[in-house]
Amino acid sequence: MKKKLSLIGVIVLLLVVAIFSISNMQSVSVNFFVAKVKIPLVILIIVSILIGVIIAMLFSVSSSFKHKKQIKNLNSQVKNLQEQVAGKSENEEE
What we know:
Largest sheet: 2 strands, antiparallel
Number of strands: 2
Number of helices: 2
Structural class: alpha+beta
Shape: elongated
Helix content: over 70%
Radius of gyration: 27 Å
Distance between the termini: 62 Å
Strand content: 5-15%
């Protein structure tokens, strides 16, 4: 059932993208410092979205690496504290 819903969702998304593409086919001028390019509006929008997604993914990966490092450090601290507690409890039994 879940696969059918996913398939339906993908089909609906593809239809929306197709309709969006057809309705935004007019050309627009884009100035790149010294060059001027005419491209379809839909291409400009899609490229802009992809660049935004890539930038967001780069920030996410960076944040993920920082969190993994922090988790590793905290796990190390927990292990050290557990060893200290175990050592104290052994000393108290003696």
